[in-house]
Amino acid sequence: MLNKGCSFTFVLMPLKTTTDQLGRTVEVPFPPTRIISLVPSQTELLYDLGLNAEVIGVTKFCVHPPEWRKTKTIIGGTKKFNFEVIDRLKPNLIIGNREENYKEGIETLRQKYPVWMSDIITPHDAMNMMCSIGEITGKSSEAEKLIEGIRNSLNEINRGLGDGKRVLYLIWRNPWMGAATNTFIHEMLTLAGFENCLKDQERYPELSLIDLTTLNPDLVFLSSEPYPFSEKHVEEIQLLFPNAKILLVDGEMFSWYGSRMRYFANYLATLPSS
Whose CA is closest to 95, among 54, 147, 66, 150? Predict the structure, then answer.
């Protein structure tokens, strides 16, 4: 029985209705105070928007900022969520991505929590994502400033760096896999003035040795992720492409579609010329 004179106040957070990049309507308590990020590049974005207190959970692959790996709860990987941990955290916003997360896991989370999903192919898509996340987290002005900086830096890219050179961008070994069209990597290569050797294929095709020998690239980019290409692989690739220049490249610069995009133009300038 309640004591006489006791009073209880229930504060209901207003809901903000938005549409994610999959076209789904999402109702989010505004501003959200318990955010989980399921995507490394979007985790870094949340940090750069100043949401340190609000973000409570990240994946084991969220390496930026490094301190969040110690101060935030790890909820599993991008393709395998720990639902028990997520339930304990009681998030009121989860942010994911169509390509990087697995559909079954996302659908399970959507039954309990507001889940906002991005779907990124082009830099324009990425900037729209940043704008939307700024709006639903109460950080619109911060997002707008970040987007302006990214747009200005991308406009300053010297397309002569690429100069139409044919590039094979490899993301995996055994089997060989590369980045083709309908990918963010392809769009960034094109933005830099390169010609993608896989422009006639879709997404991330597997490539046989016969396939590789027909490509005749000027440059081969060995990405640091998802496969950790390193110096020991350069000689192996050089045997396949004796006339090409083989470069180890930072995969984050070509595939992270968040605030890291602001570093892309400067990174291109550091790549060795052919």
Answer: 54
